[in-house]
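Practice problem 4.
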């Protein structure tokens, strides 16, 4: 029984000591006879004490991770340390004649915050989102304007299955190409769109010439319909980043029907891409 009690007491002391060691550091003791070393997870940018009888010294010319603390008798004060990466550490300082601890290794988890809140990235994201909204508003207005114009760039048209796919205009504006597209349904059935894609491909020359096709992703689509009813016409605009084509390449506008086989491919010469309105 005696051995059991001794073991239990020893265990409780061990648990208590361990718990104390894991407590968050909030008070640092110092005196005038010894240097107390503080080691921080960041290099020290600024170290400020709240009273003159506490002195915290650190390398002001070459930022280092440690500083030395001394104190004279007096009322308690505080230490504020700002790290090179903006982390802030704050502690109560007290004078003590006999010191039981001379070195403090301070973990990053004890930082109470940042000198500059992380709003800069948030502001950038806000401005980015605002920029996207502004771009979309501009695209919307300019696309609406283009559809009201009667300007044409040439006779770029494909007719098949009673469906007429044409590019009415290609306009360059502010580093973007605007493709004004018309889909006319002269058939007796509604036309449900699966997709409308624009690509550029190598022009075939000879039987052994391989075909390479690269799809161009629009940054904005205006008035794209899900369906073009029989005897109806839909006009829309695709906005793409500016690009040009060599003589060996051409653009392809692909119209694909959902749950149907009335698919069209409209070939567009490099001349129209490289010389927009």
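Answer key:
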């Amino acid at each position: 029984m005696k051995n059991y009690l001794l073991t239990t007491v020893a265990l409780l002391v061990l648990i208590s000591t361990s718990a104390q060691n894991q407590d968050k550091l909030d008070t640092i003791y110092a005196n005038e006879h010894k240097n107390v070393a503080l080691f921080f997870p960041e290099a020290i940018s600024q170290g400020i004490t709240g009273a003159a009888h506490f002195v915290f010294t650190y390398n002001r010319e070459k930022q280092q991770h440690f500083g030395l603390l001394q104190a004279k008798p007096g009322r308690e004060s505080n230490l504020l340390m700002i790290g090179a990466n903006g982390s802030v550490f704050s502690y109560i300082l007290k004078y003590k004649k006999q010191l039981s601890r001379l070195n403090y290794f301070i973990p990053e988890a004890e930082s109470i915050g940042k000198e500059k809140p992380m709003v800069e990235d948030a502001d950038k994201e806000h401005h980015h989102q605002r920029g996207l909204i502004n771009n979309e508003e501009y695209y919307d207005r300019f696309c609406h304007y283009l559809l009201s114009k009667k300007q044409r760039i040439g006779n770029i048209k494909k007719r098949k299955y009673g469906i007429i796919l044409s590019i009415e205009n290609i306009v360059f504006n502010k580093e973007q190409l605007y493709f004004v597209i018309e889909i006319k349904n002269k058939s007796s059935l509604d036309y449900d769109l699966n997709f409308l894609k624009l690509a550029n491909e190598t022009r075939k020359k000879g039987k052994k010439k391989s075909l390479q096709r690269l799809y161009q992703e629009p940054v904005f689509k205006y008035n794209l319909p899900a369906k073009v009813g029989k005897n109806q016409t839909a006009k829309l605009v695709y906005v793409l980043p500016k690009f040009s084509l060599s003589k060996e390449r051409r653009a392809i506008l692909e119209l694909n029907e959902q749950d149907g086989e009335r698919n069209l491919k409209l070939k567009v010469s490099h001349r129209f891409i490289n010389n927009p309105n």
